[in-house]
Amino acid sequence: MREPLVARMREFGTTVFATMTRLAVETGSINLGQGFPDTDGPEAMLGRAVEAIRGGLNQYPPGPGVPELRRAVSEHQKEYYGLGYDPDGEVLVTVGATEAIAATVLALCEPGDEVIVFEPYYDSYAAAIALSGAARVPVPLRVDAGRFTFDPAELAAAVGPRTRAILVNSPHNPTGTVFTREELASIAALCEAHDLIAITDEVYEHLTFDGVEHVPLATFPGMRDRTVTISSAGKSFSVTGWKVGWVCAPYALVSAVQAVKQFLTFTSSAPWQLAVAYGLRHEMGWVAAQRASLAAKRDRLTEGLVAAGFDVLRPAGTYFIQADIRPLGFDDGLAFARQLPERAGVVAIPTQVFYDHAEYGARFVRFAFCKRDDVIDEAVDRLKRL
């Protein structure tokens, strides 16, 4: 029998997260690879989900999403960013941000189109672009003054006659950088000049530290009408398993995304949607406390990694720290990450797997700090064996 997997997906295989999580289980290692918290979200929000299940809300909700959640998302965008979206037509609920990204790319990109991505990029971006038949055009993020950033000239040079969209992730996974107003303005200017659609992944929007501000690209002049803004509840509320995400965009763009999304999953579970609506309206104080807790965990792990011999880039947001392995005598992050469970009983993610140009990220591995303090401390103790 010929190879069953379509050619455009053969480069992907098993995700690095599945591979490293399996290694963690096989070796009994502490998993600081995959970015999921080991504590639950706000108790009252969890209770709303239980109430909805016991109240009989267990059948298909409306395809665009439960109206209460669409209204709550609309209110959230207005309150935090001054962006007005009609909950009936400009907000679409999805099965997490991953589905939102896939449905958006599939809806808006044709074979032969090009999509600009900043590398390192979350791995689902490349897969969604490949499924659409479009080509990805990577623009590298490089370290400058202690943070990852891009060269505006390189970004401008990546735009060509076939460029359809630019995919922007800020706060950025896996680097932890948060794009500045100046960086976002340069992206907005290119989109305006070349009639590009911006697809923004903002799932870490409320998880920035040290007073660093998250600014949605859609708030820049002219950008609301050409931006598909994507976010979700998983990271902000520590419920990554619920997979409740959303799209905010003008009617025409949401209609296009929904036309694809309805044939992927049609809809997602009503109880979680109602609970997230409650969370957006009543639990943002919990999110603020969680942000402060994560900042302390970031510092805790940073100090531990430095003590273990790594050079560390202090992230401005997300769940993740980039650690330079060269002070430990290594220069290949993939080989290092594969050895780490056996050598130290800890799992990390090699950053180079998120690049088209693997050499740019070969010296870094990514550690997640969204864990209990005792887990972080034990991981640090083990890493000191290196």
Helix-strand layout with pairing:
Blueprint lengths: L15 H12 L2 E2 L11 H12 L12 H15 L9 E4 L1 H13 L5 E6 L3 H10 L2 E6 L1 E3 L2 E3 L2 H7 L4 E7 L11 H14 L2 E5 L25 E6 L12 E4 L2 H11 L8 H13 L1 H25 L2 E3 L6 E5 L8 H12 L1 E2 L1 E2 L13 E5 L4 H11 L3
Parallel strand pairs: 1-13, 3-4, 3-7, 7-8, 8-9
Antiparallel strand pairs: 2-10, 5-6, 9-10, 11-12, 12-15, 14-15
Description:
The protein is an alpha/beta fold and 386 residues long. 40% of the residues lie in helices and 16% in strands. The protein has twelve helices and 15 strands. A seven-stranded mixed β-sheet has the order 2-10-9-8-7-3-4, with helices on both faces. The protein has a four-stranded antiparallel β-sheet with strand order 11-12-15-14. Strands 1-13 form a two-stranded parallel ribbon. The chain is globular, with a radius of gyration of 20 Å. The chain starts with 15 loop residues before the first helix and ends with a helix. The mean pLDDT is 96.
